[in-house]
Protein 1
Amino acid sequence: MESHFRSIIKAVTWRAGGTVVTAFVAWIFTGSLDIAARIGILDSLIKIAAFYIHERVWIKLKFGKLKEPEYQI
């Protein structure tokens, strides 16, 4: 079972690399390191929240989950 804390840590680490890529692309397009950093941070905050919500919704869905045995030996 996934804990809320684990889902948060997964979201943060997943986005760390994405932040760098997004900021780099924004820097190329804008030519401004300040604007690129702001875009990278805002993009990451929004996507971390979206990823967390996505994870929590999927945990609640029964689709594709294997049924736990009634007992274990």
Note: The longest helix spans residues 33-60.
Protein 2
Amino acid sequence: MFGIPVDLTDFKSKITIEDCAQALGAKVNGVPVGLQGNVGIYSFYATKLITSGGQCGMLVCKDKSLVDKVKDYREFDYRQDRKYRFNFQMTDLQAAIGRE
């Protein structure tokens, strides 16, 4: 809609986070946005292309170890290992709206 995807070929040596909130379905040189850099993020806020009835989002990444670290960061489960974690999980209602 308002997203203008950029070719990130020149930035391969840099760590890149793609903001794909308004570029859902876009491709650059046949590669879906979000998969050119290290991480792609999508916002599901009410003004975005996809909404879930609140402030939610999605992360895409080809590096499973990085995805595992992000999941550990957002899983607020009272583990006693002194790592910072936050409850960034969407509610069941937001998940249901997002699925529909």
Note: The helical segments are 64-74, 92-99.
Protein 3
Amino acid sequence: MKKLMLAASSLLFATSVVAETQWRKLDPQNTVLMTLPHGKVVIELAPEFTPNHVARFKQLAKSGFYQGNKFYRVIDGFVAQAGPKDGSEKDKSVSELKMESEWKIDDSWQYTEVQQPAFFAPITGFKKGFAIGLDKEQNRAWLTHCPGVIAMARGNEPDTGSSHFYIVNGQAPRYLDRIMAVFGRVVYGMNHIQSITRTAGVEGEAPLKEKDMIEIVDVQLMSDVKPENRIAIEVEDTDNKAFADKVQGRKYRTAAFFYKKPPPVLDVCQVPVKSRLISTK
């Protein structure tokens, strides 16, 4: 065990030598602070990719809409989904949105490549901290369902998302790519999302009662939070050579620990994008 830990430390050191992390500050106008009974969660929004869904989420957050909403569909290794009670006046008060699952690109569109070809997309990569898939033949790109992303729930028809949302809490359900509107990602407090009580347990167990479901205390734009209560975050900048070098190091596993080399295949959801707290003083 000790040797394995030393080897892991050497691997981390080798990765840090390959590329020194570069950081960018989050914009408080596009950052959300979600308060749960057991902790705080910070979400970076993605207005460049899903502007209308981001605008809707910000509008609902500013109005206090999500206070008291519950995580009513929480499946281990899948998603934690929350929103107002189905069919309630609060639920029906929010209009439906047109789907924003992908966008057009051209030859000048810049990103940091991870894999080509990839399993669920011709190419995967990163842009502005978000994992993406893209198809150059179709001139299309989209956000991928990696752990920690937040997306709008919907009915069977594409344009039926309104206020209910889900956060991926386990393995990456990549089969949802291009058919759902991903509009952000958790950058802090993912442990609190993973701690939300599951509503779907082992077969044969009694279903979770509504009174025992985890309730949202509050959802606020970080810019609306009192300065002394804000959580200031920097995230790893993915749009530079340092991050590209990090990706290559993970793909080819050049560290001595890998005495047998795995194939140079890297799932975009297995590339961590670092976050760190910064002082506001």
Note: The chain has a mean pLDDT of 92.
Protein 4
Amino acid sequence: MVVLRRAGHSHFVDNVEQAHEQLRAASLPPQAAWIAREMRPIAELCSGEEAHRQIQSHTLAHLESTLEE
């Protein structure tokens, strides 16, 4: 398991900065409104570039380990 610090759920999608802020600004149903309220601004989180670099390096390491067996 890998924990990517200062990352949100949308850090695993393209254009994370845009997607994250769109969700924060979204008008969600009352039962889900807490999601947008609890989200930190993207400026306080790791960049999409850093998240993708981390994901790529961990994925590559996993595949290399698995395929070398």
Note: The mean pLDDT is 91.
